[in-house]
Amino acid sequence: MFQEGETVFLEGADGKRYWLKVSFGMVKVQGLGAVDGSKLKDLDDGSSVSIVGREYTVFRPGMLDLVGSLERGAQIISPKDAATILVHCDVKAGDRILEVGAGSGGLTTVLLTSVAPTGCVHTLELKEENAKRAERNVSRTGLDSYWSYTIGDARESKPSVDWQADALIMDMPDPWLALGNLGGCLRSGGRLCAYVPNMNQVESTVIALREAGYSDVRALENIQRFLEVHPGGVRPSFDTLGHTGYLIFARKRLRPPN
Predict the structure, then answer these.
(1) Which residues pair with 59 in a beta bridge?
(2) Closest alpha carbon to 170 in 188, 186, 148
(3) pTM of the predicted model as reported, rounded to 2 decimal places
(4) Helices (H) and strands (E) in the chain, counts
């Protein structure tokens, strides 16, 4: 059953969504006005509810729903790329993740959903405004107690945590310049990911990783398109995601003592 304080959304017959935090009193819902929250009492995920004479389905948001409804500022890492990062960085419950670049908190949300409640995510962010926006977005997930951040330049600042990360994920234009500073924050055997927008940056990052002794260095991009499915006809969507960015992955090797 829904609990007070959790985030849900109402979905109308037209597919439009209205977000709210559950309260069993009167609730102000953007786009609908004041709503009697007691109607949600004793309801569960996927239940129908009548509000102002209209029928809605009330859902708990999944990871994709949360990412799609973020307050946007900086461009987010797309769900298709975020999913690839989870797999290639072997992110799982209990892991400790060091993220560089909060953006709008899209990847942060995905990471938190994957590592909580036994793991955590710490973000090193250059701009305070990005961190605050990400903080507002993360608070909607109910997982904000597993997230923390430090304001600083990844090329010279250290995160304010005393642990080594299982994965280091960098969304910044020049990740090769941060390797010397942050490489020590990644445990031996840990995974590294860098997300960059152009191929020149891929080249610089891959070369730097190889020179630093990382193993299994590889780069890729994801091309994805949706299908428009109608009775009697199916075609690729014109609104394809296509290329979004390049992903570089590597694994930290424990160097033998000199």
Answers:
(1) 9
(2) 186
(3) 0.83
(4) 6, 15
